[in-house]
Amino acid sequence: MKILIVSTYDTAGGASKAAYKLHRSLLDYNIDSQMLVQSKLSDDFTVIQVDSKLERKIAAIRPFLDYLPIRRYKNRSTTLFSPSYLPFSSIVNKINKINPDIVHLQWIAGGMMTINDIAKINAPIVWNLRDMWPFTGGCHYNEFCDRYKENCGQCKVLGSTKDNDLSRKILNKKKKAYDKINNLTIVGLSHWIANCAKESRLFRSRKVICLPNTIDTSRFQPLNKAFCRNILNLPKNKRLIMFGAMGPTSNNRKGFNELKNAIKQIKNISKVELVIFGASKPKNPLKVDCNVHYIPRLHDQISLSILFSSADVVVSPSIQENLSNVILESLSCGTPVVAFDIGGNSDMIKHKSNGYLAKPYDIHDIALGIEYVVYNTNYDTLCKNSRDSILTKFSNEIVPKKYIELYENIYRG
Prior knowledge:
The strands form two sheets. The chain has a seven-stranded parallel sheet, sandwiched between helices. Strands 10-9-8-11-12-13 form a six-stranded parallel sheet, with helices on both faces. It has helices spanning 14-28, 53-67, 91-98, 115-118, 166-178, 191-199, 225-232, 256-263, 301-310, 325-332, 345-348, 363-374, 379-391, 399-412; strands at residues 2-9, 32-39, 47-49, 102-105, 125-129, 184-188, 207-210, 239-244, 272-277, 292-295, 313-316, 337-340, 355-358. The mean pLDDT is 93. By secondary structure, it is of the alpha/beta class. α7 (225-232) crosses α9, α8 (256-263) crosses α12 (363-374) and α10 crosses α13 (379-391). α4 links the parallel β4 (102-105) and β5. 34% of the residues lie in helices and 16% in strands.
């Protein structure tokens, strides 16, 4: 059984890294898996990309070109919107030439392939919902707009007031393309996004299941906190609150403003310091009511394990979230997590067991959650529960077997 994982990137961004982890875990189970990407960043020979140098140069600018149609929407929000209209992609030809038994689509935006290309794939398709884009009119997160359930139009992300705007045209194009696909299985990584897909116009008549990301618990594991802080030059006598993502303080969806306001309400603030990872110290430091440490982007799993193990708590105050890699990795390293009870967070966090689920968008409750963790007299139990919750539900010993079972059921027909 030959599996082809298809993703815009292999190791850039959380969605791509999660897809790559799945690919590597399949190989560990002796599954014939390859990964096809538009832009390859790793040196892994099992990851392939377009062949010619010219195609690779074009691939590098396709994300910029794909963005051009939305530039005319002057009132658009900062949420990512992908038209996926660019022609002349050779990806679908490459897919069919490889001739896999199953094509497993991941995050395929950034101009990788057109919507119509998806319908030209010959093999059965499994599609992981890394965000909401597969079933919306182009937005990757809907900003609480439910128009994807019917027709889109008047797109909130585009800042549009017109019914027949770009979002409606894209949704209709997706409908026509998807109707041509006979064998399509949709995988929601969280129960939240699986339910959204089931309610959508595009996938309500399709098979939708829920399977999570996998994580290598032998790499992401608890390490000595004092040792980790020494490596990262972090204070040993403070409670460290950790927050981060790609563009952690500039991406409104990640909730940095909510965290900043929550910190103002934390008791005994002199005992607390904040660690922001994924960004270097800015020229004009952020104004937060405690000392702030900055750690640039880390790419390898060992460095990330040291990072998460150094913290007392990781806070993920995202406004919308599917299945956060940050939460998975933190819990796997035995560090409790505080987050809003939204999206897929409750799939990972058990309230007051391995972290704290705050009432949605309640900043005061986020502050209470941070206090609950960092001042908890049973803190070691929270840490043990964090690690155990990942070992029993998300590890490489569990999740890949479920994907393999899915593949086998599809392959057998």
